[in-house]
Here is the input.
Amino acid sequence: MSKSKILVGLVLLIYTLFVVFQFSGYELIAYNLKSLIFPMIALTYFICVKEKSLYFMLFLIFYSVSELLTIVSDKLSYSVDYFLGNALYILAYLMLFIKVCKSINLTHVFKNFKVHIIVLTALNIYIVYVLQVIINPHVELNYEYFIELIYNIVMLLLLSSSLLNYFYRDNKKSLYLFIGSLCIVFSEVIGVAYLYVMKQSLLNFIAVTLALIAFYFFYQQSKLDNKEPLIC
Here is the structure.
């Protein structure tokens, strides 16, 4: 059996155990299992993909470290755990955003997709506003509001850039990257609902499942090459 099949099997096993414990009421065990899923996907990438992207590797490293941090979060102060965990997620999404931007001709995009950019900007502003309204009553310290704001902005910039990248490239790699970004944003939004609105196991299950789907598409796109777009 190949290394990739073994690692994928371990990821699916951990995910299955997460689901079982989440719906059985053992949320702490499920929480710890969830923190192992994405580092295992990162390990699969490092072992199985030959031609690696620097920024995608950094994305996986920052995201995985933030996930693993949850295992020792009870040994850290609230402020350190909150700041460090969110800062790593922000850096992860920022690395993926840079990777997307480096693959497109920004001059061509700004010249040919003006309407798309205006619509995406307006939509992003609205979504950020809604998320901040949801989060604001629950933040304990002033800096938390700004961390959440930066987090949401970077996350939506990633989604917008991946969509523009798909318009620009129009190939399977850009499509997978956009689907992955879309799933990760939906996962984050549902995660906000789970943390701040309603602590339901179903919400957490959906959030983690969407994140897993996102990483599947991220992993698949990492094995594909970009084809040069037809620039008119």
Observations:
- Residues 3-222 form one domain.
- The chain has nine helices and no strands.
- The first helix runs from residue 3 to 23.
